[in-house]
Design a protein that fits this description.
Elements lengths: L2 H10 L5 E6 L1 H6 L2 H12 L3 E6 L2 H10 L6 E2 L2 E2 L3 H25 L4 E5 L6 E5 L3 H4 L3 E6 L1 H9 L3 E5 L1 E3 L5 E3 L2 H11 L4 E6 L5 E4 L2 E4 L2 E3 H10 L6 H11 L6 E6 L5 H6 L6 E4 L2
Length: about 280
C-alpha cells in the first residue's frame, strides 16, 4: 500500500472503520503475503477488520483420514456428533490458528476464537435437523465480544461453530455466519474473498464480471443457469446477509493486489451485491 493510499484510508476511517471479511480456509491458505500486508496496513491505519472463515475441504480431508464418510444435503454437511468433533477440531483448531499465524507473521495483530467462546454465536437447529443433524442457524451474535477484541487492537478471527443455551454445538455455514456477524456488529459492508473474480455471465460468448447486481438480478441469473454449482450457495448467503445495516456485499478475488484497501476506497472490483 502506498503512503497516499494509507492517507486516504485514514481520512475515510470514520466511514470505513469496520468491515467483515468472509474467506474459505483453503482460499486464505493460498493467498499471497501481500494480502496480509494489506490487512496489516489497514489495521494500522485505524480500519477494523473482522474475519469469519470456513474450511470445508480440510474438514472432508480430516474425516477421510479417520474413515468417516461425508454426505451433504442441499450443500450442507450432514453433521453427527462424531463429525461435529472433527468440524470443531479443524475449524477452531488448525485453520483458525493458521490464519492467526499468517496475520501475525506479517506484523498484524489477531485473536482467534470460535462461536462457542463466550456464546459468541448463538444458534438453533435448522428446520430439517432430523435429516441433517447438528447444523445450525444463527439467532444471535454477542457483538460486544467482537467490538471488545477490536478495541484491544486485535483482528477477531472467528470459526463458524455455534452453541445454544444448553451447550449443544452446531456446525454453521461460514457464509451464513459471516452475514450474521456483519449484521449484528452493524457493519455496512461485507467482503467475500474467493478465488474467482466475481459473479460472471456470458456476453457474446465471453465470460465477463458483473460489477453490480441486485438480489432480483441474481435470482434471474440462477434461474437462467448463468450462476450455477458452487457459486449458488455463495450468492444466496451473500443475499441473506444484506439485512439491517449491511447495505452491500462485495465478492472479490483475493489475489488481486491490495484488494481490500481498493474495495474500501470504492474502486470497482469484483461484484457488488446490493438490495435493489
Amino acid at each position: 500500500m502506498t503512503q497516499n493510499t494509507t492517507n486516504e484510508i485514514i481520512e475515510k476511517k470514520d466511514t470505513l472503520s469496520l468491515f467483515v471479511m468472509k474467506c474459505g480456509g483453503s482460499t486464505l491458505a493460498a493467498l499471497p503475503d501481500s494480502f496480509f500486508d494489506d490487512l496489516r496496513e489497514l489495521q494500522q491505519a485505524g480500519v477494523q477488520p473482522v474475519i469469519v472463515h470456513g474450511g470445508g475441504p480440510a474438514i472432508s480431508e480430516n474425516l477421510a483420514k479417520l474413515g468417516i464418510e461425508s454426505s451433504f444435503v442441499n450443500g450442507l454437511r450432514v453433521t453427527t456428533e462424531a463429525i461435529l468433533d472433527v468440524v470443531e477440531m479443524t475449524l477452531a483448531g488448525s485453520i483458525n490458528k493458521a490464519i492467526v499465524r499468517r496475520i501475525q507473521g506479517r506484523g498484524g495483530k489477531a485473536l482467534g476464537l470460535s462461536g462457542v467462546d463466550g456464546n459468541l454465536i448463538v444458534a438453533r437447529p435448522i428446520a430439517n435437523s432430523a435429516e441433517i443433524g447438528f447444523v445450525g442457524e444463527v439467532v444471535g451474535v454477542q457483538a460486544e465480544i467482537v467490538t471488545g477484541i477490536l478495541a484491544m487492537g486485535y483482528i477477531p478471527v472467528i470459526a463458524p461453530i455455534g452453541v445454544d443455551a444448553a451447550g449443544q454445538r452446531y456446525n454453521i455455514n461460514a457464509d451464513t455466519a459471516a452475514g450474521a456477524v456483519a449484521s449484528f456488529v452493524q457493519s455496512p459492508k461485507m467482503i467475500v474473498v474467493t478465488d474467482v473474480p466475481g459473479i460472471m455471465r456470458s456476453v457474446e460468448g465471453r465470460k465477463e464480471v458483473l460489477p453490480r447486481v441486485t438480489i432480483q438480478q441474481i435470482e434471474d441469473l440462477i434461474d437462467s443457469g448463468e450462476i450455477y454449482g458452487g457459486m449458488i450457495p455463495k450468492v444466496r448467503a451473500a443475499m441473506d446477509c444484506i439485512q439491517g445495516n449491511v447495505s452491500e456485499v462485495v465478492i472479490v478475488d483475493g489475489k488481486e493486489p491490495r484488494v481490500l484497501s481498493r474495495v474500501l476506497q470504492g474502486e470497482e472490483l469484483g461484484t457488488r451485491i446490493v438490495r435493489r
